[in-house]
Amino acid sequence: MKEKRKKILIVDDEFLIRKNLVEILEYENYEVVEAKNGWECIEKAKDLHPDLILCDIIMPGLDGEKTFVKLKEDSVTALIPFIFLTVKSKYYELRHGMNLGADDYIIKPFTIHSVVNTVKSQLEKQERIVGHYAKKTQRITHQRLKNLLVSSPAVIYSYQPDKNYDLNFVSDNIVNLIGYTSENFFETPDLWYDNLHPQDKEEVFHSLANFFENGYGVYEYRFKHKDGNYRWIYDERKLILDPLGDPLEIVGACLEITKTKQVQNQLQGYTEEMKAITRAMAHHLKEPLRKISVFSSRLEKDVLDKMPEKARDDFQRLLNSTDRLQELGDDLLTVCDVLVFQDNYKTTDMNKVVAKAIDELQEKIQATKAQIEVGPLPIIEGDSRRLRQLIRGLLSNSLKFQEKDKIPKIKISSQETESGFVNIKVEDNGIGFEEQYLNKIFKAFERLHHPGKYRGTGIGLTICKHVVQKHRGEIKVISKPGQGTCFCITLPKKQLKDISIC
C-alpha cells in the first residue's frame, strides 16, 4: 500500500523564500501548501490539517508569533508541529518565540541540509509521540474492555455464519455462567449442543431456522452447568452483514435467567389460583342471582297484574337491580380475567377483530340504526379475544352515550408509525364530556352520568384500559360536550418478551 505523503504548510510573505522551500521539500517527496500571510495560514491549517507548519516570524499584518498563538488557541490546530523561519541568529532574540512553545526554528539564509534535517526531525518526533499515545490508548481501551466483559453478567460471543458455525470469540466470564471456560468451547466445538436440555433442542433449532431470514433471534433454553445442574439461559443474537450484504459474522449475548424463571413459575401458580378463586366467586355469586331472576320471572307472570301499582313499581325495580347485579358480576369476572390472563400473542388481523366485535353488537347497532365506518386496519401481534373485548367495549360506549333519537355515527381508522407502533382511533358523534373528566372515565365504578339515564356497571372502559396495557400500549381520549368522543389507542406491532434479571 502506497504511503501517504506528509503535508507541510509554508508561510512567508516573500515569494522567492516560498519558492525555494517548495522546491526543496517537494524534492524530498513532501506535499507542500503555501500561504502568504498569517491569516491565510490559519485558514489553510484549519481546512487542510497539515503535518507541519514552517512560518516566518517577521510578516506584515499578523506576524509569525501572533499566528502561532492563534493556532495554539484553537483545538483544531493546536497540536500541529510549528517551526519558525527567522533571520535572527542570537539566542536571546529567538528565545521569545521558542518560549511561546514552538517546536524548532530555521535561520535564514537557510541551507538545503538545515531545512531537510529540521523538517525530518520534527516529523519523526511527532510520529513517535502519536505512536506512543496510540499504543497507550489501545492498552487502556483493551484493559477497559476486558474489565467490562469480566464484570458483566452477559457473556459476549461471535461465530461464523457458515455451516460449521466456527467460534470466533467468547468472553472469559462464561465460566461464571455455566462453569466451562472459553478455552473449553474452542477445544470442544459440540460443547454447546451436547449440553442443551433434550426438551429444548428441537425448539431452539426450529427457531434458528428463521434466524438468517430475520437477521435477529431471541432464545430461552436450559443448559447443563459443569456442576450437572441445568440453568435457564436468555440468548440474543444478531447477524452482521458485510458492505455487499453477505453474512459476515453472528454476534450475541447471553445471561442466566434461572431466578427469573422460578419467579415466573411462582407467579403462574398464583395466577392459576386467582383464576380458580375468581371462577368460584363468580359461580357462587351468579347462582343465587339466577334463582332470584327465575323466581322473579314466575312472580311477574303469575301475580304482577294483581299487585297494586306501588308494588308493581317496586317489583320492577327489583328486576332491574337483579339484571344490573348480573351484569356487574359478569364485568367483574372479565376484569379479573383480563388482569391475570397470560400472554397469548399471535399474528392478529385487526380487520377481523373489528368485524367480529361489530357482529356481536348487531342487535344494538340495528336498534339504534348506527352507521359504522371502518377503514383499513393493520396486522399486529396480540390476543385476538382480548382485542375484540377492547373494540366491543369502545363501540358499546359510543352506541350508549348518544342524544335521544340521534343516529350514532362511528368511525374506526388506523395509522402505522415508523417506530413500530400502530395508532387506532374510534371516533363517534355522541354526547361527549368535559376535559376535566379525562382521568376519571377509565377508573372502575366512576360514572359521569346517573345510572338511570345510561345503563351500565361503570367497568367497561376499565376493561378496555387493562387490555391495552396488557398489550404494552396506551389509550387516550379526546372529547368535548356535544361534539363526540375519540379514543386513541397506540399498540406495538410486535410484542417483546419481558426479561428481568434477578
Topology readout:
Elements: E1 7-11, H1 15-27, E2 31-35, H2 38-48, E3 52-56, H3 64-73, E4 82-86, H4 91-99, E5 104-107, H5 112-151, E6 155-159, E7 167-170, H6 174-178, H7 182-187, H8 191-194, H9 198-208, H10 211-214, E8 216-224, E9 230-241, E10 247-256, H11 258-303, H12 309-340, E11 346-349, H13 350-360, H14 362-368, E12 371-374, E13 379-382, H15 384-400, E14 409-416, E15 421-428, H16 460-470, E16 474-479, E17 485-492
Parallel strand pairs: 1-2, 1-3, 3-4, 4-5, 12-14
Antiparallel strand pairs: 6-7, 6-10, 8-9, 9-10, 11-13, 14-15, 15-17, 16-17
Helix pairs in contact: 2-3, 11-12, 12-16, 13-15, 15-16
Account of the protein in words:
This protein is α/β, with parallel strands linked by helices. It folds into 4 domains: 7-144, 3-Layer(aba) Sandwich (Rossmann fold); 155-256, 2-Layer Sandwich (Beta-Lactamase); 262-342; 344-502, 2-Layer Sandwich (Heat Shock Protein 90), CATH 3.30.565.10. It is built from 16 helices and 17 strands. A hairpin with a 5-residue loop joins strand 9 and strand 10. Helix 2 packs parallel to helix 3 (64-73), helix 11 (258-303) runs antiparallel to helix 12 and helix 13 crosses helix 15 (384-400). It is elongated, with a radius of gyration of 40 Å.
> What's the total count of β strands?
17
Q: List low-pLDDT spans.
A: 498-502
Helix content: 40-55%
Give the neighbour order of strands across the main sheet: 2-1-3-4-5
Instruction: Please indicate the percent range of residues in DSSP E strands (runs of 2 or more).
Output: 15-25%
Summing up helix and strand content along with how strands pair, one would put the structural category as alpha/beta
